[in-house]
Structure formats: C-alpha cells, structure tokens
Write a structure and sequence with these properties.
heterodimer, A: about 550 residues, mainly alpha, Cytochrome C Oxidase, Chain A, 15 helices, disordered N terminus, B: about 160 residues, alpha+beta, Immunoglobulin-like, five-stranded mixed beta sheet, 1 helix, 10 strands, about 15% helix, cytochrome-c oxidase activity (chain B), metal-binding (chain B)
C-alpha cells in the first residue's frame, strides 16, 4: 500500500506546515479575544475603551477567524497530508509553497494594519459601496494569490505522483486535497475578479463607480464555496484519519471520493442562496440555485453513513453487542477521536439549520438575524474547528517530533467539553433570539427602548456567558498548542492514515478523471450564473461611489 | 459502483425526502406565491428624493390594486423615512423601499418582512398585517457606525376601536 510508504512527514515539509500552524493559532488567539469583547459589548454591560469601535472589533474577529485561521490551518494541514501520503515535495514545490506562505502572511499584515488603523471597518465580507483603504483590498488579494502558490505546489505533487504511478489510484488523502484545492481555485476566481476588476481600482480612484449587485454576486460565488473549503479538510480527517485512530478501516474508498466530487460540483453554482432577499435577481434563478444547493445533502448523507458504518464495524469487532452496544467500545478517552466526534455530532443541528437557511422563502424568517451567526458558530466554529483541534493534537506533535502526553490528552477532552458547553449556550441563544428578529452584526442597542428589542437583551447576556466560556476554551487550546510546539516530551506521534476495508469494492477510474469533473463543474456554473449576471449587467442601475460611514 | 444494502436504503430515503421537500417549497413558491422579494426595478440612487414614489415617503391608500396600501420607505445612513407608520389591521400592504447610499437591511421583527435594500435597486414585498401591535423595523445589514440605531416602527392598529 502506498499509504504505508511514507510514514513520517519529511522534516522540511514539517517546517512548512508548522509555519502555517503558528499563524493559524496566533489568529485564533487574536480573533477569539475580539469575540469576547463583542459578546461583552452586546450584553449592554460593558463599553469598549479608547474609542475602539464595535464594528472594528467585529471586522478583526471575522478576518482573523474566518479568513486567516482557516486558510492557514487548511493549507498547512494539506501540505502535511500530501507529503505524508504522496511523498515529500520536490525542492521547487517546497519553494513555491514557501513563497505562497510569505505572500499570504504579507497580505494578512497589510489587511490587519488597515483594520487596526480604522481604515477598513467593512467586516470580513467587505460589501460595497462601503469603501475600505486600497491596501486592505490589496492585502486580501495577496492572501488569495499566496494560497494559489501553496495549492499549486500540492497539485504539482499529485501530478508527479500520478506520473510515477501510472494506472494506480492515488492515495485517498491526496485525492481529497486535490478536490478541495480545485474547488478553492475555481471559487477564488470570483472574489479575485471582484477585488481586481472592481474594488481595488475603485478604492484607488481609477474607476468612480461599481455595480453593487455584481460585487455581491461575485462575492457569494466565492463565499459559499469558502464554507465548504473549511468543511472538506474536516471531512478528510473524518474519512481517513478517524478510522485509523479507532483502529478500524475506511468503509469505502469510492464513496469517499464520490462525496468529495459531489462537494466540488455543488459548492460554487449555489452562491445566490445567500442573496435570496436581494433585489436584482429573479425568483426563477434564485430557485434554481436553491435546488443546486440542496444537492449537497446527498454527499452529506453519504458521509454520515460512512462514519457510522466505520464506528459500528469497529465497535462490533471489539465485541460490542446489540443495537447500540458497539458505541461503548469506541475509544472515548482518546482526544483524537472524541474531539472531532463532538464536531460531527454538532453537524446534525448545524446541517438542519443550514437547510432552513437555504429554503428559499423560509430564508426571510432568519436572513441577517443573529440566527445566522448562531448557525455558523455551529458549523465552522464547532464542527470544523473542533475537528481542526482534533487534527492539531496529533499533527503538531508529529511535525515537531514530540508526543501528546496523557495530561494534554485529558486537557484536550476538557477543552472540547468546555467548548460544547459554551457553544450550546451562545449559539442556542443566538438561534432563539434570531427567530424573534434580533439582527446580526449589530452593537448593543435598545432601539429607543422598543419593547421587542428589550426582550432580546436577556439572550444577549446569555451570549456573553456562552462567549466567556468559549474564550476559556480558547485559552485551553492555546495552552495545548504551546505545549505541543515547545514543551511536550520528544517522541514519535503517529500521523494516522486509515487503510481501506478489505471488503470494499475497487474504485471506478472515472472518479480520478478530473477533466470530466471540471467540465461538469464549469457547465453547472455557467448554467447557474450566466443569466443572472447578464441580467444585472444589462439591466443594472448607475453604479455606486464609495462611502466611509465609520 | 457497489453500494451497501443499508446505504441504498439510507440514500433512497434521504434523496426521496429531499425531492419531496423541494417539491413542497416549489409549490409554495410558484403556485401559492410565497416568493422572496425579488424586484428587478432600478433607480438612480443619487436622485431618490426627486423620483416618484420616493419623493413622498409614507403610507398611502390605493384603489384597484391587489393591495390596500403602499408603504414607501427611503433608507439612508442611519435612518428610515418615514420613522413611524400606523397601519390598519388586516390590510394588505405593498412595501416599496430603496436606499440613498450604502446597502441597508429592512427586517420587521415578529413578521416575515425581511429584505435587502441596495443602491440602484427598488425592493418590494407584499404582505398582510393581520395582528395588532408595535413592530420594530431594524437595519440588519451593517451600514456603518450608527447601524444599530437605525430603526422604524409599525403600529398596526384596529381602526374600529
């Protein structure tokens, strides 16, 4: 098996992956602190000192956690995963990765500086016609362009592996990295077009006006794929790593690959479901994209089945009996399993909430209410993040040549339960008060002592309680991170990569035929987007000048 | 590709539910008319105050239409015009709104009225106010420093009392 050929990530690749991890966890610390400030302010019991604005803090929170933490962690994890399963990078591939890393870091510093100077208080979605400083937009461009260097190196490694192993199916983990990277590339073309053709020249004064509806449509062409870009690395760990951690086998290689292909196809032609209450797009095209959005339920159901099949097969192998007896046999004391498992469990309510959000007219009930914030704190900030933490607990020591000690393992489990507890309170309160109409992305306000707004305040205090517990959770994970980087005992921590179940069927060749899938992807994008975009261009109003209302 | 027997059942049930769900959503939308606000009318956002109906924001009784009133709203940082309206309970209202500057939200707490207001576009939604009470309208799309102070009030009243 190719899986066992490269047991250890090459030291040089480990340094590369670790560079990403340092940035990711630094972003977690900063972004997490900003989150704490926000929930305090919105409780109405606390004011920010020194003229710091709520929306400035909110922008830092979103950029650091939504863009920096995720992108750096994912690209670092992918680099390690490719190196582990397809062999070490060539000198050129590694150099390209490093160049990409430094460009991303430079971009992060540029954007962060502008936010701190209060020149870019536009939130992480930077909707026009609020106009940030051009250096903010250029910094974002650098983050995207840098990420292209990193993923191109990973794609090049994959191509090299295919050439050297003609006729063989590629290692599953590398294959998943390829699917996620291709999705990222195609999706970021949209936001790159928005920034390079519209926002950057507009903020520099080269063009006077931009079409707001186009900027938003390009943003969401990217924006929904962005959330799958966060989710798929978690799926990689679920499909490939977790089976090995619990001592079982991967249920089916072909189903794993098929679900990644379906995610790739239905990640991009769906962005308009974020724009359901907007003018300028007709009902028909909104509905088409709603249907395409819901197709992603199919790979989600496949994933749920595969996961629990793996768990049950392993539990029964260990002697678990009865309908649910096998559950007891799973390694409930192992953080590498328990932490991502909680993430999986959180995906059940998170996914159900997502279905509500995308449900066409039902979207009006929750659109831009804090329900949505509650929703993505379950998806990205629980399902994805806890899985990332679960990855970090073996990946970091693997890369630094240390081990996860029993004490740290215990602390990691405590961390996950702290997180679950805090998030249940915070996200629960957000969901509930969102249904009552409380808006997201808003500072504390009684709206002139309006009766309805006063009813929201107890929920906002609950959010502050939950948010404080979550911040304790961030402190715990940072303690573990620092320990694993510099203080844990030296040793060999395994990078777990599962093997395929011996009864699994041979994987069909077509799943590795990227020409077919990219063609289908492009076709779906053209079907879903050509008419709506042409409508906006042809029927569009006078464009907008920039505004700076902060 | 081979699928496990249980997985076939699982996916058949799952995809079946999905199709049923989409059919229900589709019938609700295209047969019963429950559509999200999707107007494609445009306007010069710099001339909003000079163009009808936005030159006279407020609630107006109309005749011979599918709705009883038209509520014309102009949003700008950080206020709505008008700031308050009284609507007779049970009446059907067409809300016609736009913005003079950046993107604003228009969410009426306790109702299903929720739409985006974007520069250059007119947003419209028809609804019936069938319960008396005060309904707070909030801007639910970040628009700047005063975003959380941007509000309007609906007073749905029983005129016979």
């Amino acid at each position: 098996m190719n899986n066992s050929t490269f047991l250890c990530v090459d030291k040089r690749d480990a340094r590369l992956a670790m560079a990403h991890m340092y940035v990711a966890f630094a972003a977690l610390a900063i972004g997490g602190l900003m989150g704490l400030l926000q929930v305090f302010v919105r409780s109405g019991r606390f004011e920010l000192p020194a003229n710091i604005g709520y929306y400035q803090v909110l922008t830092v929170h979103g950029v650091m956690l939504g863009l920096v933490l995720t992108t750096f962690f994912i690209l670092g994890f992918q680099a390690a995963a490719v190196s582990r399963t397809s062999g070490t990078f060539t000198a050129k591939q590694r150099l390209a990765s490093w160049i990409g890393f430094w460009i991303m870091l430079l971009g992060t510093v540029m954007s962060a500086t502008m936010i701190l100077l209060n020149e870019a208080t536009v939130l992480y979605t930077f909707y026009a016609p609020l106009q940030a400083h051009w250096i903010f937009y250029l910094g974002l461009t650098f983050i995207v362009v840098g990420s292209w260097f990193v993923i191109f190196a990973q794609l090049a490694k994959y191509a090299q592996w295919r050439k050297e192993n003609k006729g063989e199916m590629s290692p599953l983990l590398t294959y998943m990295v390829v699917a996620n990277s291709l999705m990222w590339f195609v999706a970021t073309l949209g936001v790159a077009a928005e920034v390079l053709l519209q926002l950057l020249p507009w903020s520099l004064g080269f063009i006077e006006r931009v079409d707001v509806a186009i900027t938003r449509t390009l943003f969401w062409y990217f924006g929904h794929a962005l959330v799958y870009f966060w989710l798929l690395p978690a799926y990689m760990a679920w499909y490939v790593v977790i089976p090995k951690v619990i001592g079982g086998k991967i249920f089916s290689d072909s189903l794993a690959r098929l679900s990644f292909i379906l995610f790739l196809l239905f990640s991009i032609p769906v962005g308009i479901h974020h724009q359901l209450t907007e003018p300028g797009i007709t009902e028909f095209w909104k509905f088409v994209q709603v249907i395409l959005t819901f197709m992603v339920i199919i790979p989600s159901l496949m994933t749920a089945f595969s996961m629990f099949a793996t768990f049950e097969l392993r539990g029964r192998e260990l002697g678990g009996k009865g309908l649910f007896g096998w559950l007891h046999k799973l390694p409930w004391g192992d953080a590498r399993f328990v932490v991502p498992f909680i993430g999986m469990a959180a995906f059940i309510p998170a996914g159900a909430g997502g279905i509500i959000n995308a449900s066409y007219q039902m979207n009006q009930v929750i659109h831009n209410t804090i329900w949505v914030t509650g929703h993505f704190h379950l998806t990205v900030a629980t399902t994805v993040l806890l899985t990332f933490f679960g990855i970090a607990y073996w990946l970091i020591p693997h890369l630094t040549g240390r081990i996860l000690t029993p004490q740290m393992n215990k602390l990691a489990i405590i961390q996950a339960f702290t997180w679950t507890f805090g998030m249940t309170i915070m996200s629960g309160a957000m969901h509930w008060v969102g249904l009552l109409g409380a808006p997201r992305r808003s500072s504390y306000s009684t709206y002139g002592d309006a009766e309805q707004a006063l009813e929201w305040i107890p929920y906002q205090i609950a959010q502050a309680v939950g948010g404080t517990i979550l911040f304790l959770g961030i402190i715990l994970v940072l303690i573990i991170f620092v320990n694993l980087c510099w203080f844990a005992p030296k040793g060999d921590e395994e990078f777990p990569v599962g093997a395929i179940d011996k009864d699994a069927e041979k994987t069909p060749k077509i799943l590795e035929n990227w020409k077919v899938w990219i063609t289908v992807l492009v076709a779906l994008i053209l079907v879903a987007y050509t008419v709506p975009i042409m409508d906006i261009i042809n029927g569009g109003p006078l464009g907008s000048k920039g505004f700076k209302f902060w | 590709m081979h699928l496990h027997r249980y997985e076939k059942w699982w996916l058949t049930f799952g995809i079946g539910s999905l199709v049923l769900f989409l059919v229900i959503v589709g019938i609700s939308a295209f047969h019963q008319g429950h559509q999200p606000p999707s107007s494609v009318k445009t306007i010069n956002y710099e001339q909003v105050d000079k163009v009808a109906p936005f030159n006279e924001p407020g609630l107006k009784k109309v005749e011979g239409k599918d709705w009883d009133y038209e509520l014309v709203v102009v949003a700008s940082a950080f206020m709505y015009m008008p700031t308050e309206v009284e609507i007779p309970v049970g009446s059907t209202v067409k809300i016609i709104a736009t913005t003079k500057d950046v993107v604003h939200g228009y969410g009426v707490a306790g109702t299903n009225i929720n739409m985006m207001l974007e520069p250059g576009y007119v947003s419209e939604y028809v609804t019936t106010m069938d319960k008396t009470g005060e309904y707070l309208v909030v801007c639910n799309e970040y628009c700047g420093t005063g975003h959380h102070t941007m509000k309007m009030m609906y007073k749905v009243v029983d005129v016979n009392e």
